Amino acid sequence: MSIQEIKSAVKKNSNKEKAKLLQRFFKTGKGEYGEGDVFAGIQVPVLRKIAKANGDITLAEIKTLLASPVHEERMISLFILIDKYRKGDEVEREKIFKLYMANTKYINNWDLVDVTCPHIVGRHLFGIGEDLLLELAKTNNLWKKRIAVISTMYFIRAGKFDATLQISEMLLRDDHDLIHKGVGWALREVGKKDMNTELGFLIKHYKKMPRTMLRYAIEKFPESLRLQFLKGQI
Question: How many CB atoms lie within 10 A of CB 5?
């Protein structure tokens, strides 16, 4: 298989009407977070099928495809990268991790981040340490900050919450809605594993949290407790 075959499959499955909807949904207008991104209008299950059928392309070819201006082509490259990481040995995984981190400028919308970083960045750093994630959280780059917090989903699933809580505290006063949502989501996942841990964090910080972050974090709480947080009565 080749990059050209992937591009041909994307062209074959493209849908102009869906592309218009996706470009609005993913905020591709001037001054918006996805400014300039180009969509083909293809649903994720179809992208996964294309990725599965072309999983034997090389890392060099993946790197080329990841630089595509077409959103779905970048997503396909990332799906293939996840599968290669899952199947790879230690040497291969290190190469994939380095490729991912060297090309974050192309992982530049929230779906590209959320679908991929726990399976590559989070998994790779688990048990090694989260220093790199803390550095990403300190940057001024929206997508690197989102990678930092969403990568910890892998840690959360393994019952480890320290990195999530530390990064969440660092991002409490971030001014972007996508960070508010990402942190809130991560905290909600902590709560699914250990409600007391999430409660302890929220009680300490909820009054200075952006409202969206708080709403995401407490979405699954019992209604009476959720209202107490929203009214500032905890």
Answer: 13
